[in-house]
Amino acid sequence: MRLLQGRVVDEPLAERKDVEGLLVGFISALIEEQRLPEPLAVETKNPVHGEGG
Amino acid sequence: MNAPTQPSCRRRRARCLIIQLARLGDTLQSLMALKAVKQLYPELELHMVVRERFEAAAKKVHWLDGVFTLPTRQLIGPVLTGENTIRQSLGDAARWVSPLVEKPWDFVVNWSFSSASSYLAGLVPAFVKLGYSRRTDNTFACEDGWSQYMQAFVQDRVDQNIHVTDILTTQLLTALQIHLGEPENVGNNTVTSKAFFATDPPPREVFDSPFTKWIAIQLGASQKEKTWKAGSWARTASIIMNNHPECGIILLGGREERELETAFMNSLEADFAGNGRVRSFVGATDFDKWASIIGSCQWLFSADTAAVHLASVLGTRVLNVSVGPVKLAETGPYGNGHYVVSSAHEDVTPEAVYAAWSYGSGEWSHNLRVPFEKHAEGLGIGKDVLSNARVQRSKIRPSEEGGGVVYEPMIKRELRVGEWIGMAMGHIARTWYCGWTPAVGSEITRDLVSRTLVQSLRQAEKQLAVLSRLLVEGHLMASSISRKSMSLHSQKIMDVRDRMEIQELGAKLAELDQHIDAATASHVVLEPIGKMSKVLMHNLHGNSLVEISRASAAAYQQLNHGAGILRDWIKHTLSLARPVAVMDANVVSLASRRAGKESTT
Predict the structure, then answer these.
(1) Could you point out which of B28, B120, B162, B363 has its C-alpha 20 to 30 Å from the C-alpha of B369?
(2) In terms of Cα–Cα distance, which of B532, B431, B134 is closest to B142?
(3) Do B136 and A42 make contact, defined as CB atoms within 8 angstroms?
(4) What is the distance between the alpha carbons of residues B333 and B598, in angstroms, rounded to a whole number?
(5) Overall number of domains in chain B
(6) Mutate to test the interface with B, among A1, A3, A43 (most CBs of B within 10 A)
(7) Of A22, A30, A47, the CB nearest to B138
């Protein structure tokens, strides 16, 4: 069920987040995508078991 | 601080924001999925974020409640030219984002599957999120099943056979069913329609003859290697016009495709060059004109371009020449009765394309009862011309058989290992995320199983046994960590022995993961399990050791479930290839055959 319902985050408040960090990430990733022919792959890092692919 | 918002998802009039920052083809596929959703949940408020370049399509559908346009050039142009630093551009970015974040959404659905879009999805407040996003610490999050499937399989180029439009539709509909309840309308209204977009009718001078059957040819493709030669299109057009005087050709393409237009005209048989049966609109169409022309043609011929998706939503039949690195099952034309021609080794031939089109356009007379190869033979196109060709016809499968679009082969060919993996992975996904389990291998018949496939599966079977044992061990070990951490009074202050025990279990689990990596890398059939393992382990959800170790145990269980289905597929396929004893009643002895012959002579 958890896999199907989506991430229930209930996050009404933007101020809870690192808005500046997210904006910087957004603009930086847009620039990277502009420079690359294919969209950027997202990072995969395993928090429990170490680095992933 | 504002007061916490009550989840409003229980209301049918929920607000849903779709983020689609990919290209036009993806935008069109998203619109098709959204139309299906809107038909089932008519009160759902749908808003969409799209790139400025592709906004025309989203703005031309009347059932979207709002379209937000991302002005990419305006936001990043000054940074690219060095006028601004990223920090200096944040003000513009914040101003653009502000209408999206002023009121929480019930659902934010990110269908772009890209890094940039994940930051935007992280910024926008919502009750439920689907697709890529960011956690509160800005790390990447992909926590719903279908998005994990997109990341591990679709984006990592694993063979799988579920169309992207079907993935998007199922993902959103399942979440809506959970949060909003069953849909009110369960009718079978078609999604595709000539009136999908509110565009003007095509100019009269384009379709001035009511007796001409127009075929649009989209020249070019998004990548050079996906482009079919202009000369081959011209040869196909010549064959059609020579044999079908009722047909005319309309050329379509962007401004950058004028060279292809010239090459096409130069290769066309001289008789057709200036007689009005070939009309070119290359570089002369905006979205409205492009859509209205394709919507008014009987067929669209195209390589892998957004035009294929545009024709699909408009209900115009497609003949897709699939060349280069294209995954047909994921992004081919959507709907019933489209044709796809590809080639196993060499280039696709115009003769094979003509045979496929004439077979498709004559369906009303032969009703698919005439074998394709016999039809081609009747046209004088021999088996040698078709020896490397693959011709497939699209079909929407009934929901009791799993639903979605499938591509049925018109020429039977033995299964390639990749195709077999695609079928097995599609089955695994349906079992994981749809709760619907089709019969194992029902799509495979004995004549499709080649010796190469059998050899490959025999090797995979051995490695799979090792992998399954490792996954069971991983599940047990993660469960042990969970039990151990539950018995602790505190997660932070603990006995040195307890800490050492947990650390030891953690180290063993890390070692086990390396063995799992090695096992999945040992055979192409097992690689998808390894890729899914990485995605699942990255997305473990939990705030404490107990929660994370529980999630970890569940991930190993899910992977082992998938490995079990894979094992069933291998067993089933190998059983098909096994020699079968002939029933006594069917045995005719040589002596009796001889006797029979003698008596007739």
Answers:
(1) B162
(2) B134
(3) no
(4) 58
(5) 3
(6) A3
(7) A22
AA letter at B454: V
Q: B33, B27, B9, B19: which is closest to B132 by C-alpha?
A: B19
The DSSP letter of residue B446 is G
Residue B56 · residue B65 · CB < 8 Å: no
Share of chain B above pLDDT 90, in %: 66
Same domain, B262 and B374: yes
Q: Give the separation between CA B120 and CA B534, rounded to whole angstroms.
A: 24
Residue with tokens 């008789």: B271
pLDDT value, residue B592: 64
Cβ of A31 and B7 within 8 Å?
no
Q: Which residue of A has its CA nearest to B506?
A: A49
Q: Are residues B134 and B245 in the same domain?
A: no
Distance from CA of B423 to the nearest CA of A (A): 22
Q: What is the pLDDT of residue B1?
A: 35
Half-sphere exposure at residue B107, Cβ-oriented, CA atoms within 13 angstroms: 31
Find which of A19, A35, A46, A51 to mutate to test the B interface (most B CBs within 10 Å of its CB). A46
Structural domain containing residue B90: 15-180
Segment (H or E) for B67: strand B66-70
pLDDT of residue B502: 81
Give the C-alpha distances (Å, rounded to integers) separating A27 from B119, B237, B458, B489. Answer: 9, 46, 49, 44
**Segment holding B99, helix H or strand E:** helix B90-101
Structural contact between residues B430 and B402, judged by C-beta atoms closer than 8 angstroms: yes
Give me the CATH number covering residue B62.
Answer: 3.40.50.2000
Cα B93 off chain centre by: 31
Q: Are residues B351 and B434 in the same domain?
A: no
Per the listing, tokens 């601080």 go with B1
CA distance to partner chain B, nearest, from residue A21 (Å): 7
* Whether B149 and B35 share a structural domain: yes
Residue contact A34–B123, C-beta within 8 A: no
Interface contact A22-B127, CB threshold 8 A:
no
Query: Which of B2, B119, B175 is nearest residue A4 as measured by Cβ atoms?
Result: B175
- ipTM surpassing 0.95: no
Local mean pLDDT, 10-residue blocks, chain B (601 residues): 43 88 95 94 96 94 96 90 89 93 93 95 94 91 93 92 95 94 75 86 81 94 88 96 94 93 91 82 92 95 95 97 90 96 86 96 92 94 87 90 89 92 94 81 87 96 96 94 79 73 85 94 96 92 84 95 96 88 62 58 41
Give the tens place of pLDDT for each residue, A8-27.
766 655 446 788 999 999 99
Longest CA pairwise span in chain B (Å): 102
Give the burial class of B32: count Cβ atoms within 10 A of its Cβ; 0-12 exposed, 13-18 middle, 19 or more buried: buried
Residue B110 φ/ψ, nearest 5 degrees: -100, 105
Same domain, B446 and B520: yes
- Residue B98 is assigned to a structural domain of this protein: yes
